[in-house]
Automatic annotation (TrEMBL):
This is Redoxin. The keyword Transcription does not apply. Gene3D superfamilies: Glutaredoxin (3.40.30.10). The chain crosses the membrane at residues 6-24. Residues 60-199 form the Thioredoxin domain. It comes from the Bacteria. It comes from Tautonia plasticadhaerens. The keyword Nucleotide-binding does not apply.
Length: 230
């Protein structure tokens, strides 16, 4: 092949590549924010996005005294808040049985526990009785106790409207923050707050694998922190 023919061939390939790339961009579009990682092919829709109103309501819980509670975990152990507050920070993870968002968020909370569990107490709070809590722990390998909250008393007291809410309580028994869901930014913030409160290095909990936008879980019934139904 002559030099002239080689130049023509290379130019043709370049034009073809450019056309193909332009077509791919037109089909693929611009990169979209990462969605929630859910299971069984069930995807959370826009109704699960954390709203500005949810954010404002959660922010109003900060610096309030944490509600006291008594509950039973999946093994039948009684957990009393008064025996925990004052000793170390406490993390409450609110769970709704059968909620895909609770399932997809669980590994991130487990990683937070692995990083800070030696100096902070982690507790799940599920909307069911002890048998439901036990099944959740067995199905998900949750590394911390899960409290039974069949009447949603704890969820109501902490104004957790949906599952995947997380409350952080300091040693003085004061709510540091209530997060209305999970995302890359929220998980990074939780890790940073726990690092400050425990004195441990800030841990990498794989937050980049989480949704870019903040997602909350399925709502608890009306009357639980004023949350919606459906």
């Amino acid at each position: 092949m002559s030099t002239r023919d080689q130049v023509i061939a290379i130019g043709t390939l370049a034009i073809g590549f450019g056309t193909g790339f332009a077509w791919w961009r037109s089909v693929a579009g611009d990169p979209k924010p990462r969605g929630p990682m859910v299971v069984s092919g069930v995807l959370a829709d826009e109704e699960h996005l954390v709203t500005p109103e949810m954010t404002r309501a959660s922010e109003q819980m900060a610096r309030r005294p944490a509600p006291g509670f008594r509950a039973v975990d999946q093994d039948g152990n009684r957990v009393v808040s008064s025996s925990m507050f004052g000793e170390r920070p406490v993390v409450l993870v609110f769970i709704k049985d059968g909620c895909p968002c609770s399932t997809s968020a669980e590994p991130f909370y487990a990683r937070l526990h692995d990083a800070y569990g030696d100096r902070a107490a982690f507790l799940g709070v599920i909307d069911g009785d002890r048998s439901v809590a036990s099944r959740w722990v067995g199905d998900h390998g949750t590394p911390y106790p899960v409290l039974a909250d069949p009447s949603l008393e704890l969820a109501r007291d902490f104004e957790a409207r949906n599952s995947a809410y997380v409350a952080l309580i300091d040693r003085d028994g004061e709510i540091v923050s209530l997060w209305p869901g999970y995302s890359e930014g929220i998980l990074d913030e939780i890790a940073a707050r726990l690092s400050e409160l425990t004195g441990l290095p800030r841990a990498d909990v794989g937050a980049s694998e989480a949704p870019e936008l903040p997602y909350s879980g399925c709502p608890f019934p009306v009357g639980t922190g004023g949350g919606p139904t459906g």
